[in-house]
Amino acid sequence: MIRKLFIAALATTVIASAAAPAMAAGIHIDQYGWGNQVGGSQSGWNQTFSTKQTGWWNKATSQQKGGNNVSAIGQQGNWNKGDVYQNGWNNQAGVGQFGNNHTSVITQDGNGNITAGVQVGNNCNANVVQQGSGNVTAFVQACN
């Protein structure tokens, strides 16, 4: 009986330690409102995906592969959509979005890419695509 208990405890420890790298990658979700959606995937090293949505019917998606990637979305208002797709090393993203009916799509592939955002008002659209290495982009919009 003690032997079975010891084996079960050892198996649990092995499974928990194998899952630790995936847990170390992050993902923080904080939603207030109604009908908000978050989805995504991560693989690789030191990745973090953080979302904070306040309002109604906001959608956030982040897909990351590679190393040292960071994604953060934000969104305050209604019917906003933010998507981040990253592949490679040392990539970071962003988004922001305050107001209603915004759409942001960030796509990065390569090394050392950085993207920011912020859309204020209503009905803004941003589509940022980066490939290569050492790229930097910032977008600021005030749409109505």
pLDDT averaged residue by residue: 85
| Percent helix range | 10-25%
Output the helix-strand order: HEEEEEEEEEEEEEE
Please describe the biggest sheet, giving its number of strands, its sense, and whether it closes into a barrel: 5 strands, parallel
Number of helices: 1
Overall shape: it is flat
Report the strand count.
Answer: 14
CA-atom Rg in angstroms? 19 Å
Indicate the low-confidence ranges by residue numbers. 5-23
Total domains = 1
Bin the strand percentage. over 45%
Helix and strand content put the structural class at: alpha/beta
Q: Distance N terminus to C terminus?
A: 70 Å
Question: In short, what is this structure?
Answer:
The protein is α/β, with parallel strands linked by helices and 144 residues long. It is built from 1 helix and 14 strands; from the N terminus they run αββββββββββββββ.
Can you put this structure into words, describing what you see?
By secondary structure, this protein is of the alpha/beta class. The protein has one domain. The chain has one helix and 14 strands, in the order αββββββββββββββ. The strands form four sheets. Strands 1, 3, 5, 6 and 8 form a five-stranded parallel sheet that branches. The radius of gyration is 19 Å and the shape is flat. The termini are far apart. Mean pLDDT is 85; it is low at 5-23.
